[in-house]
Specification:
The protein is mainly beta and 361 residues long. Helix content is 6%, strand content 40%. The protein contains three helices and 25 strands. The protein has helices at 52-59, 170-177, 192-196; strands at 2-6, 9-14, 27-34, 40-48, 67-72, 74-78, 83-90, 135-136, 148-149, 154-159, 165-168, 186-189, 202-207, 218-222, 238-239, 244-248, 254-256, 260-269, 286-287, 292-298, 304-306, 315-317, 320-326, 334-344, 347-360.
């Protein structure tokens, strides 16, 4: 199962403009460049997710043995190296989002910035020494830039691939969720070596919470909710062992955002072998192997909403294969398509257009 939580607040910290607030900017930026005076300049992202609802779902037993992924979607990227890393740390102090943008004129300083946590009229600045136990900070040329716990942390390495972020932040979020460290959000940055070195590392721009697109930053919660029945529990269902035809047999054209639905997979061999039987071969209930998964994509943009993986394993029972889908975090008034990946006869097969549905408000 996949559950999505959108970011509650975010902003970019600009080293070159130490008091600039960008709380309602449509873009988040991780950049490293060297200015005309040969001075290194960096930007970092701070982002916060309220975990109250997730903690309640965990307490109720609906979320179990979960993993967490931070998702940021690239708006554009410039002059990136072939290989680079993006790091995430849990913030050790809170921040106020503010109402500025990177292009505000005059500059707005009423929220978080490279120097200040809550605006330049507030005494709350990012510490530059005497950090709280287990926390630290760093900068290339201008003091500030946030403060964070050293551990736990997360890293995503990029090499010849898309610059979208899908970072496993399980250790961080579990520590925040369990109260081991307070939940003040995350800070995303390049490595200290990249930030302080003389080389440029280009610009990574992502859509923010204030974007007018579907690409809002989100926290993805993933857990295995599959139920794999075997033996007598599968009744007369027969596993497909050759090329198959796959569809959804209880599909509704529309589903409301935030609700749940069960999708029943209809499958049968692509070619029916003629034998003497007492019922139609087309009436036999077939099911897919236990190594079968579903994926959900935006029908227009092909954005992967739910990837193939441990959180999208197909269940199966006496009526065949199925999966449950929670439409929390799905953008309404959009169409989505279902894909299925299954190991059949020892060969992995992917079925691209199993079904299409719309999510409505």
């Amino acid at each position: 199962m996949h559950y999505f939580k959108y970011a509650d607040k975010d902003a970019t910290l600009y080293e070159a403009s130490a008091s600039l607030n960008t709380g309602i900017d449509e873009i988040l930026s991780i950049a490293k460049y060297v200015d005309s005076a040969n001075v290194s300049r960096n930007t970092r992202i701070v982002i916060y997710f309220d975990l109250t609802t997730i903690n309640a779902l965990k307490a109720s037993g609906l979320i179990v043995s979960e993993s967490y992924y931070l998702n940021l979607f690239t708006s554009n990227a410039e002059a990136l190296p072939l290989s680079y890393d993006v790091e995430a740390y849990p913030l050790s102090l809170s921040f106020q989002m503010g109402t500025g943008t990177s292009t505000s004129n005059p500059e707005i300083n009423n929220g978080v910035s490279w120097k200040y946590r809550n605006g330049d009229t507030n005494a709350a600045i990012w510490p530059t020494e005497s950090f709280a136990a287990g926390s630290t900070g760093s900068w290339a040329t201008t003091a500030g830039g946030g403060a964070w716990y050293i551990s736990p942390n997360a890293t995503q390495s990029f090499e010849y691939e898309t610059s979208d972020i899908r970072m496993n932040v399980t250790d961080i979020v579990l520590s925040q969720s369990l109260g081991i460290i307070p939940n003040y959000g995350l800070i995303l940055k390049r490595t200290d070596a990249a930030e302080t070195g003389s080389s440029e590392y280009g610009i990574l721009n992502f859509f923010s919470t204030d974007t007018h697109t579907i690409y809002i930053p989100r926290l993805e919660v993933v857990w295995d909710d599959s139920v794999i029945a075997s033996g007598s529990a599968t009744g007369s269902s027969v596993e497909v062992t050759s090329s198959a035809v796959v569809s959804v047999k209880n599909l509704n054209p529309e589903y409301r955002t935030g609700t749940k639905a069960q999708f029943r997979i209809a499958t049968r061999p692509q070619w029916i072998t003629k034998t003497f039987v007492t019922q139609s071969q087309y009436a036999i209930p077939y099911m897919l192997s236990t190594a079968s998964y579903y994926s959900i994509r935006d029908a227009r943009t092909d954005e992967v909403i739910v990837p193939f993986g441990s959180g999208s394993r197909l269940s199966r029972d006496s009526n065949g294969s199925y999966f449950n889908l929670w439409f929390k975090g799905f953008q309404p008034e959009r169409f989505y398509r279902v894909l299925v990946q299954a190991t059949i006869g020892g060969t992995e097969q992917t079925f691209e257009n199993v079904a299409t549905f719309k999510v409505i408000r």
